[in-house]
Amino acid sequence: MTDAMENCGFMTALRAIEGKWKVDILCELGKAARRFGRLRQAMPAISEKMLVQQLRELEADGLVSRTTYPETPPKVVYSLTKRGAALNAAADALCKWGEEFGDDVGQAEARAVAAG
C-alpha cells in the first residue's frame, strides 16, 4: 500500500474500527450511554476480557469516553465522544450502501470465482 493510501482519511477510519467488536460497541453506544454490564448484555457473544480490551482501545482513540461516578460500588458509564458519534454516522452510511448494493457485490464475486 502506498504512503498516500495509508494516510488517507478512509484508512484512518478503518484502522479506528479495526477489531471484531468495535463497530458493535459503537452502535450500542450510539443508542445510549451504557454501563459495562448493559453493554455486555447487549452483546452476549463477546467475552468480558475482549469487551474491556475493545473499550480501552476505543477510549484511547478518543471515540468513547469513560465516566466513573464516586459510588460504592463504583458506577462506570461509557458513551460516545463527538468523534465517536461522527464515526458512527459515517459507518451508518456504509451500512446503507451495503444493504443497497451487497447482493450485487456478492453476485459479481461469485461470477469471478466461477470464471476462475
What does this structure look like?
This protein has 116 residues and is α+β, with helices and mostly antiparallel strands. It has a single domain, classed as Arc Repressor Mutant, subunit A, CATH 1.10.10.10. Helices cover 66% and strands 12% of the residues. It is built from six helices and three strands. The chain has a three-stranded antiparallel beta sheet. A hairpin with a 5-residue loop joins strand 2 (64-69) and strand 3. Helix 3 crosses helix 6. The longest helix is centred in the last third of the chain and has 34 residues, at 82-115. The two termini are 26 Å apart.
Helix content: 55-70%
Rounded mean pLDDT score: 86
By secondary-structure content and strand pairing, the structural class works out as alpha+beta
H and E order: HHHEHHEEH
Beta-strand residue fraction: 5-15%
CATH topology: Arc Repressor Mutant, subunit A
Largest sheet: 3 strands, antiparallel
Assign an overall shape.
Answer: elongated
The total tally of domains equals 1
Number of strand elements: 3
Q: Return the CATH architecture.
A: Orthogonal Bundle
| Straight-line distance between termini | 26 Å
CATH superfamily: Winged helix-like DNA-binding domain superfamily/Winged helix DNA-binding domain
Individual helix count: 6
